[in-house]
Amino acid sequence: MHPMVKPALRRAWRERDRVQFGVTPAHAVVLGPVDPATGCLLALLDGTRGLELLREEARRLDLPDGHVDSLVAELAGAGVLDDPTGHSAAADALRKRGGALDRLRPDLASLSTVHPEPGGALERLAARRSARVQVRGAGRVGAAVAAVLSASGVGHVEVLDGGCAEPWDVAPGGLPEEAVGERRDVAARRLVRRVAPGAPPRAAETASAVTEGEPGLALVVVAPRDGFDAYVPDPEAASEWVATGTPHLYAGVVEGTGVVGPLVLPGGTACAGCLALRRADRDPGWPRMVAQWRSGRRSTTVACDLGLATAVAGLTAAHTLSFLDGGLPTTAGARWEASLPLLDWRAARIPPHQECACGAAGNSTAGKTGGERGSGAEGRQATMAG
């Protein structure tokens, strides 16, 4: 191990003998009391020295035996210590890809603030390379989501859509102007390749690869060009994902309202069927109107404000990455909405429906959101005594 205080956490002395790592309450940690010699030792925790060399430095500072190990254990327990050497083969393979890793260093720093264990950030960034995500839709929202995921290190990003790109599909971070007239899926896949930090991993680099060399789907992002199908998702269209246990996340813009969620964990959180049943319970006329909207003639150009679409794409990509990194974002069993012109983002809880065939109503997962899957991790703030 080569201990390193996480560079992403800004350091400041609160008093002469107490040092704080981190600015925001979610990640700030205070260490104290800290004597001058220990303060000097903290400056040496930069990832260039192993434990034995640090013990030698501590002896030169007249610090007692075991002080280094105790300090390292405290810092690691508080989540402010990293290990740049990593451990797994996937992390080692990513480290060797210098150019790709340089592109992802801001993402690596961000992950280090979220995942406290030493080396955890690099492990999760390496895991992204073996993840496979399918984005359904290559409009202003879908194409941007796919691009952000690819640029964030997700190794396998597929984009599915039909037809040819129109001038109104063009967006910053999404399809470029030269894509107009080209097949949407082809243009989106080229965008994904262009922004990716290096080539996707070979099958031999990941233990999760199936026999054919392609990993299974980790998530489907449903981001249709017509945001109506994200706001009112069709249970029949999602039936295969529910049956196969494939997580899926809805996102889009409809009539000046942006929606992100729900993230459906089949059998664990509310699905499109639950959403339809609950809406019908509140409004008996809703199913009749939905049938008319689905069967009626649609306008060629949908209402999709570019600023709102960009915000929806960013939030969708962030929730997707949180899920891929092992978290359980707040879209699990809920939906975030914001409408023009006030853009007041609000979360609406969507409990599973007792009559839905998905079976989520009998599962407790629906109540476990906003943390890390299986751990209930939340924002942390600790005070340590040195």
Radius of gyration: 24 Å
- Beta content comes to 15-25%
The strands making up the biggest β-sheet line up spatially as 7-6-8-9-10-12-13
Low-confidence stretches: 204-211, 374-386
Shape: elongated
List keywords for this structure.
4-stranded mixed beta sheet, 17% strand, 7-stranded mixed beta sheet, 14 helices, single chain
SSE layout and pairing:
Blueprint: E1 4-5, E2 11-15, E3 18-21, E4 29-32, H1 36-43, H2 51-60, H3 67-78, E5 81-82, H4 89-96, H5 98-103, H6 105-114, H7 120-129, E6 132-136, H8 142-151, E7 156-160, H9 184-195, E8 217-222, H10 228-231, H11 239-244, E9 248-254, E10 257-264, H12 272-282, H13 286-295, H14 306-324, E11 327-328, E12 334-339, E13 346-349, E14 371-372, E15 382-385
Parallel strand pairs: 4-15, 6-7, 6-8, 8-9
Antiparallel strand pairs: 1-5, 2-3, 3-4, 9-10, 10-12, 11-14, 12-13
Helix pairs in contact: 4-7, 6-7, 8-9, 8-14
Would you write up a description of this structure?
This protein is 35% helix and 17% strand. The protein has 14 helices and 15 strands. Helix 6 crosses helix 7 (120-129), helix 8 (142-151) packs parallel to helix 9 (184-195) and helix 8 (142-151) packs across helix 14. The chain is elongated, with a radius of gyration of 24 Å. It starts with a strand and ends with a strand.
